[in-house]
Amino acid sequence: MNKKFALLLALLVSLLMGATSASAAEIKASGDWTVSADWLNNAAFLDKGSKTGETNTFGISQRMRTKFQFIANENLKGVLETQIGTNNWGNGLYQIGAGRSAATNAAPTANTAGNGNIMLRQGYIDFKWPGTAVNFLVGYQSLSLPAAFGGGSAIFDDFVGAAAAVVPVTENISLVGGYARAVDVNAAGATQTTTGKGSAGNYDVAFLTAPMSFMNKGLSLNPFAAYATIGSQSTGLSLPGMMGPNSTLSEGARVYTGGIAATVKLFDPFVVMADFNYGKATYNNAGNTNAASGGRSGFLFDVAVDYTGLSMMTPELFFAYTSGEKGNSTQENRSNRMPVIGNPQNWALGSFWLQGSNSLIADGLGDTTRSNLGFWALGLSLKDIKLVDKLSHTFNVIYFKGTNDVDYLKESGGTVRSATYGQFLTTKDSLWEVDLNTKYQVYDELAMHLQLGYINPSFDKATWRAIDTDYDTYGSKSAYKASLILNYTF
Predict the structure, then answer these.
(1) What pTM does this model have?
(2) Rounded Cα gap, residues 341 and 108, in angstroms
(3) Fewer CB within 10 Å of terminal CB in the chain, N or C?
(4) Considering the domain 28-489 in this protein, what is its CATH number?
(5) What is the pLDDT of residues 29-65, one digit of tens each?
(6) In this structure, are residues 28 and 67 in contact, taking their beta carbons and an 8 Å threshold?
(7) Contacts of 42 (CB under 8 A, 6+ apart)
């Protein structure tokens, strides 16, 4: 009996081990851990002693992003990415907390949990349909419309719950499309604060792109289109990139966007990158008197030329133009800036005024400034300067000039929305930015960065006095930045 029992037990263990082996997944981990010591001076461009008390600041912040891939086979895997921080040293413990902000009825807030909370950055299922090359990605993920220059899309580049499909058409052409829900105030859970708003509480996006790569001929094109509906109770119009001059949070909108990203390598050693984006948002709340004429529409154009014929650096000349407000915008209740869906995560020119995706500085710039648009910029970059082994530099000099009519502020009587001093540029406002960013590769996986930035602004006092009589004390004072960053990637 004991022998039979032992044999039965051995068989059971063997079956269990076989079942476990059959269902086990290979796990791959990667990460991006950053510690940044930042000194910032006059980021709001104010005179000493102004009413807001502009001061120099120094802080050390930390952010830890860790990504896991659970690979069942070549056709199926799950992806989980977490983030802890960004949090300042001395500002609470790096405790495991509730995670993302409970304000689910506000803007998509992909990177704002803070205070050391561990939060979901991405969590989705990635699989191919059996017998086909069609790839599906379903779950909370990073989505971006195409962009050839600027580091990411200026229209839509965020973390959202979505279902996307990649469909190969030919060897050189694919279709990428899907659906995303950016906001749903009806979601259940302990952190939910509002319920029962139905479809009026939703912010949905449908998108389609058609990447075409003919790099053997030196050409890459990626046209795209996206349509979004913003429910009247989703507060989607509270986003800086979606506000009209007198828009209210109780208005919904229909948003139409489209464009194309292109990279051309036909003129070796020159590489040309260009983007054209257009968007139109129409308010649709018939019960609001502003809805009849309210909305937002505008465009973005950029072009950059890289010279790749040098071994020690890559010079780049670039130009960008975004449409701005007209003088009669507030009278017509229409914005003439391009609508922006969500919070753009990566689009930037330079690394100070518009920030960059790797910056941890919480200075009131960054996402909000990127959403405001209404300027043109001309810049020169010397990228990846290599004079010493393991040491590289990037140098930027950029001139920004506003495209927003000064009468936009004067007509508003101080009530205009999303026009913040230091972030919104009129045709009488300008900025000079100079950056010098140095990178030392300590190990293959560990880099140390020193980022230096300088901005010399010129804001017109008479124009800004229209919305704040205290602007006489504002002096367009220069801003400075110095960041020492340690970045471990694995």
Answers:
(1) 0.86
(2) 9
(3) N
(4) 2.40.160.100
(5) 999 999 999 998 887 787 655 555 555 688 888 889 9
(6) no
(7) 54, 56, 477, 478, 479, 480
